[in-house]
Amino acid sequence: MNMVSKSKTISRQKYGIIFMVSGVVLAVLGILMRVAFYNKNQMYDLPWFLVILGGVIIFYGMSQYADRKHLGGEVQFTARKAKDFFLKYALIFSLFVLVIVIISIQPNFMQWDVVLDILAQSSIKLIIALGICMTLLIAGTDLSAGRMVGLAAVISTSMLQNPTYANRFFPNLPQLPIIVPILIAIVVCGLFGALNGVLVAKFNMHPFIATLATQVMIFGACSLYFDTPPNKSQPIGGVRDDFTALAQTKILGKISILIPIALIVTVIMWFVLNKTVFGKNIYAIGGNMEAARVSGVNVFRTLMGIFILAGVLYGFGGVLEAARTAGATNQYGNGYELDAIAACCVGGVSLAGGIGKISGITIGVLIFTVIQYGLEFINVSPMWQQVIKGVIIAVAVAIDLSKYKKVLWH
Predict the structure, then answer these.
(1) Is residue 263 part of a domain?
(2) Where in the sequence is the domain holding 216, given as residue range(s)?
(3) Nearest 5°: CA angle at 29, between 68 and 57?
(4) Are strands 74-78 and 255-256 parallel, antiparallel or unpaired?
(5) pLDDT tens digits, the chain, 410 residues: what are they?
(6) Are 61 and 201 found together in one domain?
(7) Distance of CA 234 to the CA centre of its chain
(8) Is the backbone of residue 238 left (phi > 0), alpha (psi -120 to 50) or beta?
(9) How does DSSP assign 147-197, residue by residue?
């Protein structure tokens, strides 16, 4: 006898109202907490966080209520749907648990300054992840990303030092317009991205091997450049103020300029992946390369575009990293590609290719940054931080495989 899973159905209208009421309750609770603890610091900025969260929940409820005709008049709850929901958002739930644990240990984690600092630290990582996500969408990868970041940092800083700095990389170089070294650094990374594209698209080399080869090549070239006289592998410092302003400027006194820069890049990449033929071709190749080729997709051109655009994003990220730290060495960017790949996996980009969203990648980067920042905030040993990050990556990939195992195995 077939067993029918128990389910419960409520109207979409009631479903939306439940969320709206819940959001109102949460927002009111935040306001009351703010009033009750107005002259005290026990709650820090938690009341405002509750108000914002309540507002988000209210907005979700309103959207469900308003779109009930489009979404369907009823909402069905089953054990299977609940399992799929928790599986899909397992890492986000885990993040909330981690934040609660951190708050219980260090209540001052609940501050706007902490949130803004986390967003600033996420910005450059997000730009790099947006570049590497395209290579993951075609069921590939890019191991050269971190070294391109370092290369761009070294090139840009070597040409943007103060004229009065004692240990200039180019002692006789006149002061250049700031855009020139930046464009040179980005173009060089774009050319290495093109090399990746040629190896993958022309010689049918697996992206893992192709980008591993260029990774070694880029690091060697960067180290040779970094070792040229009179620098001789000395850390590059004394960079110009107009260069550091690109990453160190504060908007409204508190908000890092890196946050709106990352937001603009994110919007552009969302448009590229969702609203252009190039973006649709990326998903088509990731889903089935041969089927995409038969349907008329220019696979060679698309693969070249992917790796060139990725290289440009890595170069831009490297320039911002150099501006943020006001210096560079040939070790900059080491391991950045691994964090970016992990963030993409956490954000739902399938290793099987063809599946992934910009919103998920953004969440993945934020999750990783919150975890790293939070663990440092409560003074967890760096060694334990690495263990925890490794566990998170393993769990993320396991969840990814469980969601798409039918695609992978059949």
Answers:
(1) yes
(2) 81-409
(3) 20
(4) unpaired
(5) 444 456 688 888 888 899 999 999 999 998 988 787 766 666 677 788 889 889 999 998 998 888 777 777 788 878 777 777 777 777 677 777 878 888 888 888 888 889 999 999 999 999 999 999 999 999 999 999 999 999 999 999 999 999 999 999 999 999 999 999 999 999 999 999 999 999 999 999 999 999 999 999 999 999 999 999 999 999 999 999 999 999 999 998 889 999 999 999 999 999 999 999 999 999 999 999 999 999 999 999 999 999 999 999 999 999 999 999 999 999 999 999 999 998 998 888 988 899 999 988 998 899 889 888 988 888 889 898 889 878 877 877 777 666 655 444 33
(6) no
(7) 31
(8) left
(9) HHHHHHHHHHHHTSB-TT-TT-SSTTPPPPPTHHHHHHHHHHHHHHHHHHH
Q: Give the number of other CB atoms < 10 A from CB of residue 11.
A: 13
Domain boundary among 50, 77, 104: 77
* CA 266/CA 362 separation, integer angstroms: 8
Read off the pTM. 0.88
Regarding whether 108 and 255 lie in a shared domain, the answer is yes
- Residue 282 in any domain: the answer is yes
Return left, alpha or beta for 94; rule: phi > 0 is left, psi -120 to 50 is alpha, else beta.
alpha
Q: Smallest Cα–Cα separation from 372: which of 343, 344, 352?
A: 343
Cβ burial of 255 (10 Å; 0-12, 13-18, 19+) is: middle
Q: Which two tokens stand for residue 324?
A: 């943020």
**Nearest one of 131, 342, 345, 162 to 237, comparing CA atoms:** 162
Read off the amino acid at residue 101. V
Domain boundary among 38, 56, 77: 77
Task: State whether 278 and 314 are in the same domain.
Answer: yes
Whether residue 27 sits in one domain with residue 160: no
Tokens linked to 51? 């108000």
Number of domains in the chain: 2
Q: Is residue 2 part of a domain?
A: no
User: Is the domain of 136 the same as that of 46?
Assistant: no
